[in-house]
């Protein structure tokens, strides 16, 4: 799937699902917070017995901060477990 390049400052809505046969799916959505533009990627396993927070990455640019990536790496924690801040 190809996306057209957008001029700087323009944002395209990206909502979709990427299937991994026999494992689960990646849900990809535009962040819902206007003050935090970015994308939200979550892996949802097919395993019905999976308990806990699904693996998730949010890549966002808060209007009052720096570009950052939030990672949910521990299924036993509701909050993100790691933050990477980029100096751009």
Summarize the helices and strands and which ones pair or pack.
Blueprint: E1 16-20, E2 24-30, E3 38-45, E4 56-60, E5 68-72, E6 82-85
Antiparallel strand pairs: 1-2, 2-3, 3-4, 4-5, 5-6
Quick summary of this structure?
With 88 residues, this protein is mainly beta. The protein has strands at residues 16-20, 24-30, 38-45, 56-60, 68-72, 82-85. The chain has one domain (16-85).
Structural class computed from helices and strand pairing: mainly beta
Uncertain parts:
1-13
Strand order of the largest sheet: 1-2-3-4-5-6
Q: What's the number of helices?
A: 0
Q: What is the tally of beta strands?
A: 6
Tell me about the biggest sheet? 6 strands, antiparallel
- Into how many domains do the coordinates divide? 1
| Mean pLDDT level | 84
* Residue share in β-strands: 35-45%
Distance between the termini: 28 Å
List the helices and strands in order. Answer: EEEEEE
Shape: globular
What fraction, in percent, of the residue positions are helical? Answer: under 10%
Radius of gyration: 15 Å
């Amino acid at each position: 799937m190809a996306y057209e390049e957008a001029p700087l400052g323009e944002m395209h809505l990206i909502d979709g699902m990427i299937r991994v046969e026999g494992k689960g799916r990646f849900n990809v959505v535009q962040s819902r917070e206007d003050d935090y533009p970015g994308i939200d990627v979550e892996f949802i396993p097919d395993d019905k017995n999976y308990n806990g927070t699904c693996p998730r990455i949010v890549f966002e640019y808060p209007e009052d901060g720096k570009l950052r990536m939030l990672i949910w790496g521990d299924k036993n924690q509701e909050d993100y477990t790691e933050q990477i801040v980029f100096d751009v």
